[in-house]
Recover the amino acids of this structure.
């Protein structure tokens, strides 16, 4: 029997993720949205592509939460996107209402599901989803760290003139302006970027990574990034469905790790069929600890606002 993935939100991120899943054919998809016709139309379009991709997946678009029942994974992309000049935190109040309704309606129908939260401000929405669902924190995970790390990988690959496949990168902390790119743990085929680039070039790469989402928003003018966020969510969906136990940087609920308590923020985790199976606690140097603590406090300050 095929696995079942519900994607909540049929906008650019949700539709792109649904496309990736059904094209690969490893799960059936329910594409949910409150706007009548939009999820149905996009699902029909994707269904008609399945024969051309050789995909056995089915996809249904709906405005009815009932069809999401017994999902293995629920990916929440619903909410308002960033606009030029907006920070992720500006979206707090509006998206909190959306997330609360979505999680209340879906958690009761899929009590064994793993949640992947994409909606911004992502760390805070993950924490809200955990509280509203009543699920164990291991089954509610935020997506941001994979996306931020992918951006750093891209910029490092361009700087080094190498394939992005050969670059590994790590970004910790909140998915926002206070994220913590980690040059010490960023490598090209095992060689640290600290051996390859000057301090000034590394700092430029770090700053561009921090502004990666805003750079896309500025260029698009009418929306925010969606291909890379969808690809990041896709990596998480696969790791859960196939119990891949990938080590990935994701927003997880910290309960003492890295000196932080009762907060979601980006750290390396082992991601498997049960969600977060282990949090990997790295030995940070003094500057890294300071930057990480500052990022955590920034996330906590928004949680307090909520």
């Amino acid at each position: 029997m095929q696995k079942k993935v519900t994607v909540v939100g049929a906008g650019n991120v949700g539709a792109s993720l649904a496309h990736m899943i059904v094209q690969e054919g490893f799960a059936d998809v329910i594409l949910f949205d409150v706007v009548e016709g939009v999820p149905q139309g996009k699902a029909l379009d994707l269904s008609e592509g399945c024969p051309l991709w050789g995909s056995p997946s089915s996809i249904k678009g709906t405005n009815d939460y009932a069809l999401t029942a017994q999902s293995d994974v629920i990916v929440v992309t619903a909410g308002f996107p960033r606009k030029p000049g907006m920070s992720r935190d500006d979206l707090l109040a509006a998206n909190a209402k959306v997330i609360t309704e979505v999680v209340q309606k879906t958690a009761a129908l899929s009590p064994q599901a793993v949640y992947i939260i994409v909606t911004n401000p992502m760390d805070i929405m993950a924490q809200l989803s955990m509280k509203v669902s009543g699920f164990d924190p291991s089954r509610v995970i935020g997506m941001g760290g994979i996306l931020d790390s992918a951006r750093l990988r891209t910029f490092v690959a361009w700087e080094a003139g190498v394939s992005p496949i050969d670059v590994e990168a790590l970004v910790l902390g909140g998915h926002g302006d206070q994220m913590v790119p980690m040059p010490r743990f960023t490598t090209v085929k095992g060689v640290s970027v600290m051996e390859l680039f000057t301090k000034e070039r590394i700092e430029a790469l770090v700053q561009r990574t921090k502004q990666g989402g805003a750079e896309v928003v500025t260029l698009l003018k009418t929306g925010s990034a969606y291909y890379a966020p969808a690809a990041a969510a896709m990596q998480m969906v696969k790791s859960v469905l196939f119990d891949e136990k990938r080590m990935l940087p994701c927003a997880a609920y910290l309960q003492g790790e890295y000196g932080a308590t009762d907060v979601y923020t980006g750290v390396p985790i082992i991601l498997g069929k049960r969600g977060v199976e282990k949090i990997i606690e790295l030995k940070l140097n003094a500057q890294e600890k300071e930057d990480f603590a500052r990022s955590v406090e920034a996330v906590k300050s928004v949680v307090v606002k909520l």
Notes: The mean pLDDT is 95. The first strand starts at residue 3 and ends at 8. Residues 141 and 150 are 18 Å apart (CA to CA).
